[in-house]
Amino acid sequence: MCLGVPMQVKAIENDMATCEIDGVQREASLMMIEDVKVGDYVLIHAGFAIEKIDEDEAHLTLKALREALDMGLAAE
Amino acid sequence: MKHQQEYRDPELAKLQLQALHQMVSEFDGAMTFMEVCGTHTMAIYQNGIRSLLPDKIRLISGPGCPVCVTPVGYVDHAVALSRRPNTIVATFGDMVRVPGSSSSLLKEQALGATIKIVYSPLDAVKLAEKHPESDIVFLGVGFETTVPTVAGAVLTAAQNQLDNFYVLCSHKTMPGPMAALAGDPELQVDGYLCPAHVSAIIGANAYQPLVDAYKVPCVVTGFEPLDVLQGVLMLAKQVVAGEAQVETQYRRVVKPEGNLKAREILYRVFEPCDSRWRGIGDIPDSGLQLRSEFCRFDAALQLPVDVEDTIERKGCLCGEILKGKIRPTDCPLFCTVCTPEDPVGACMVSSEGTCAAEYKYGGWSIGAGGW
Fold it and tell me: Contact, A26 vs A19, CB < 8 A?
């Protein structure tokens, strides 16, 4: 039930956003988050954006994983 | 699918597993980690993660499937409301097939009740606007991820001055049951994979009291396969080092303090109350009820109905499964009389129930026998 879908904000009108993933669009309420702008990625749950996705943190998580991979390959 | 696909890379998964096997190879003993959230249970089954882990690491499923932990009496109450004239029950899909004492919402629908499956609580508010002649009862089930969305719907209904929108509340909160299980002497949990999206709301700091009281490692973990493997790796690292702390693997979404705005909306509308969990029992302050200023939206108060006496299904071991004490295959009903087509217990109904996941991904079929 707690599934959330990362979607990109395509348009904002009042407190509602049009969000998109893989060409599928949905309306979502922005009641719960602040400072969101077109182009941001947000996590959509039950018709609401419940959090913004932090691009810097996403990048750092993946970078750490890939660095580990590189070290692993080097060790082989 | 940005922010999803990159966390499903099999090459990276292989490397994570190598690191994990290496880390625990020297470790003397075994580790049991509980994935608290039903969405984690699904991710673990769907990706076959359990079979890839070292033998020393055991994953058990916990009480984080909202539909599964909702007591039978709540389903009976919803069934009774669905029998009222001019009433529409609006609900997330999973609740429809959950067996009550003598019926289910699906059976009531076949008998003429109006049951609408909605994607968002706001859809239930729209139903109320569209059908002023009917009472709309939304089934308020779910944890902190979902409750703010229900609070948002109540605020919208109040703003639009709707007098035909109601919520039947059975909302529950974390980490109360995790503390209850951590203190259970029959259950040895060496670490928690903490729920991803509940934590987006409550924040990683919410687990600190649990860590302080029980010295059990907690890692807030995302739902993609690489997230789960990294979460397990972080827990194993803590266990090997003899540490217990709160860490966040799912940093792209979860902040230490959580989502303050969502919590403000949640607590503007709801207040803590004691709550009954299927399998675990009553836990103080682990539920949420509408505040008195919003009691006109409370279906339990405003729409009185006679609710039948609760009858627990004989032989159903959902309670033990929700505590992580047994696996689905340990239940004599699993795959014999309890199947997704004809479920006996809620864990077989919900798309994130442990038994439904075991049935779907464990290669079972009707009559195969679960033991």
Answer: yes
Q: Which residue has tokens 């059976």?
A: B107
User: Where do the structural domains in chain B lie, given as residue ranges?
Assistant: 1-314, 318-361
Give CA torsion, residues B173, B178, B179, B181, to 10 deg. Answer: 130
Q: How many domains does chain A have?
A: 1
Cα gap B73→B308, rounded to integer Å: 8
CA pseudo-torsion sign A64, A66, A67, A73? positive
Q: Which CATH number fits domain B1-314: 3.50.50.60, 3.40.50.12710, 3.40.50.300, 3.40.50.11740?
A: 3.40.50.11740
B7 closest CA partner among B224, B220, B221: B224
The domain spanning residue A43 has which CATH number?
2.30.30.140
B343-363 average pLDDT score: 89
pLDDT in tens, B171-188: 999 999 999 999 888 888
Q: Residue A10 half-sphere exposure, CB side, CA atoms within 13 Å?
A: 13
Whole-number CA gyration radius for chain A:
16
| B5: helix, strand or coil | helix
> Is residue B335 a contact partner of residue B366, using CB atoms and an 8 Å limit?
yes
Structural domain boundaries, residue A26:
5-75
User: Which of B1, B3, B223, B267 should we substitute to test contact with A (largest number of A Cβ atoms within 10 Å)?
Assistant: B3
Closest Cα in chain B to A24: B1
pTM: 0.94
* Crossing angle of helices B147-159 and B121-130, rounded to 10°: 30
Cβ-defined contact of B148 to A58 (cutoff 8 Å): no
